[in-house]
Every structure is written in structure tokens, then in C-alpha cells.
Write a structure and sequence with these properties.
Four Helix Bundle (Hemerythrin (Met), subunit A), 75% helix, elongated
Length: 212
């Protein structure tokens, strides 16, 4: 079972006595941490390729392959909106997690719904951005090294956001069904940790691809 699937399934109450007697990080927590580390390495390779190509290019973005009149992806307004949505979702996800540890299920449900809506909003705005790039500007993944790196990095991140949205839906359903408690909620903890990772990657992407 993958780490993300483990996060979805976490929080079983089959053996609560084991959860209370265990000392130190659980196997599920260690697995999730190692999964996040592997994701950091993967994204790090893409970022390394980006900076390698940028250093080698005489001008950046490299104009080879870009559509006529297209200089670089704009940092405003759509990317700024996406940043606000995802950063805000990081706060609401954290509030849902802390509410769960307090045993306040109603607040957990509310904050999870808000987090989910913000995540879906991010995906919708990114899809709109892609449509404008591809069908209006003629900028796509085949538009030179700049287009390839941009769509590879943002597309990979967008896929991770979709995975996160799926996990959020799963733990939200399980929360409504009463599957979690203040002392047994790894499904929520693991999913929120993954969501914070997605947030951090986007901030790095926004600074690197859009602003610098």
C-alpha cells in the first residue's frame, strides 16, 4: 500500500490498545515521512534541470520554440490567485487537524470542507490558465525547453493537488462517518502533512517559474 493510500486508510480503531501503548513515531508516520522525502527528491530533480537550463541559456526564457510575441508566463493575476487559494488551504487544513486533536468534530468537518473547496478552486484556476496558454497564446509543452519545463513542473504539481483533493474527500467522508478520534486520526494527520508538502512545492514553483 502506498503512503498516500495509507493516509486515506489510517485511523482504524481495530486495535486501540496498540495505539495507546506505542512509543515514538508509528510505522504509518515513518512511511508517510519517507514518501514525502521521495517526493522532495523527485521535484528536486525537476528544479535542478530548470536551473541547469537557465544557467546555460544566454537569455531566459530561451526564445527557441516559443510562439511569436510570447516572452514568459505572467505572474499575475491567475498565478497569484492560485497562490492565495493554496496558501489559505494550508491554514484551513491545519485548523482542521488541530480541531481533530481537540476532539471538535464539527469544526473538523467545516474546515475540511473549506480546504477541499480551496483545493478544487486551485485546480479550476490552473485548468483555466492552461486553456489560455494552449489555445490562446499557442504556448504548450512542446514550446521549447521553457514550455517543456514549465508544463512538466506545474503539471506534476497539479497532479499532486488532484491526489490531495481525492484524499481530502476520503477523510472528509470518514470524518462524517465518525471513523476518527482525537487519539486515533492518522488518516487526517497523514493527509494534512501531504497537503502542506503540496503547498510548499507550489510556493517554490511560483517563486521560480513566475517571479524570478
Amino acid at each position: 500500500m502506498s503512503a498516500s493510500a495509507s493516509a486515506f486508510a489510517g485511523g482504524s480503531t481495530a486495535h486501540p490498545e496498540l495505539a495507546t501503548e506505542q512509543e515514538g513515531p508509528s510505522n504509518e508516520s515513518l512511511g508517510m515521512i519517507l514518501f514525502i522525502v521521495s517526493e522532495v527528491v523527485m521535484f528536486g530533480a525537476f528544479f535542478a534541470q530548470y536551473f541547469y537550463e537557465r544557467i546555460l541559456a544566454e537569455t531566459w526564457p530561451n526564445p527557441i520554440g516559443l510562439p511569436p510575441g510570447f516572452e514568459r508566463v505572467p505572474a499575475f493575476p491567475l498565478p497569484a490567485i492560485m497562490t492565495v487559494l493554496l496558501v489559505a488551504s494550508g491554514f484551513t487544513a491545519h485548523w482542521a487537524q488541530t480541531a481533530m486533536h481537540r476532539g471538535d468534530r464539527e469544526r473538523v468537518e467545516g474546515w475540511l470542507i473549506v480546504t477541499l473547496l480551496l483545493g478544487v478552486g486551485f485546480v479550476g484556476v490552473q485548468a483555466f490558465e492552461y486553456v489560455n496558454f494552449i489555445f490562446v497564446d499557442g504556448f504548450n509543452i512542446t514550446s521549447g525547453i521553457y514550455g517543456t519545463i514549465f508544463f512538466s513542473l506545474t503539471g506534476l504539481h497539479g497532479f499532486h493537488v488532484l491526489v490531495g483533493v481525492t484524499l481530502l474527500i476520503g477523510i472528509m467522508i470518514r470524518t462524517f462517518l465518525g471513523h476518527f478520534s482525537a487519539r486515533n486520526c492518522f488518516g487526517i494527520d497523514g493527509t494534512i502533512l501531504y497537503w502542506h508538502f503540496v503547498d510548499a512545492v507550489w510556493i517554490a514553483l511560483y517563486l521560480t517559474l513566475y517571479l524570478l
